[in-house]
Amino acid sequence: QKEVEQDPGPLSVPEGAIVSLNCTYSNSAFQYFMWYRQYSRKGPELLMYTYSSGNKEDGRFTAQVDKSSKYISLFIRDSQPSDSATYLCAMSRGGSYIPTFGRGTSLIVHP
Amino acid sequence: KAGVTQTPRYLIKTRGQQVTLSCSPISGHRSVSWYQQTPGQGLQFLFEYFSETQRNKGNFPGRFSGRQFSNSRSEMNVSTLELGDSALYLCASSLTTGDTEAFFGQGTRLTVV
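^ Those are the sequences you sent over. The predicted structure of the assembly is below.
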């Protein structure tokens, strides 16, 4: 079992839909949780990061962490075709520890 | 502010050869991490350099090595290339070691034939 599990998709939704992207993890020492967006032929771009449990909102994006269930989510409201990309979750113990990445979920938002 | 620059963008090499990839981090960033990305394995950590010292190392064979210069620029080298080394190699820079805010370059697409 990998430390971080993420459904590769693809997840296909119509424009305007609310998208839910999720990751589960097994290492209870993870304290920092990140979401990256990667467009085709580009490097990952950091979208948001949260510390410990709770919610964090940034525009149309909301990150949610449930440490008791070892489950994190990224919600995208009013999804747009430009949101079509691969979304990677990443987690870290903090300090000098290197983040562990999920394999990414491919999202397709069709007009 | 310039982003992370990786060169070259694309590379084709023959099995058995060696290759050197370059990464220039964001100005002021002193930590550089290298990752290998493949469809099968996803993003896998190779190593991290901070202040010209390797601080962390992933689970890759010794054929993969790197270094960092005093201006924080970094290079990674892969010797005796194998077909399985074909991947997107990504460099990420951050202000300091272990920083959660890491900024990635566009990567070097290496194809081994």
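Chain A is about 0% helix and 55% strand. The CA atoms of residues 15 and 57 of chain A lie 20 Å apart.

Shout if you want it in another format.
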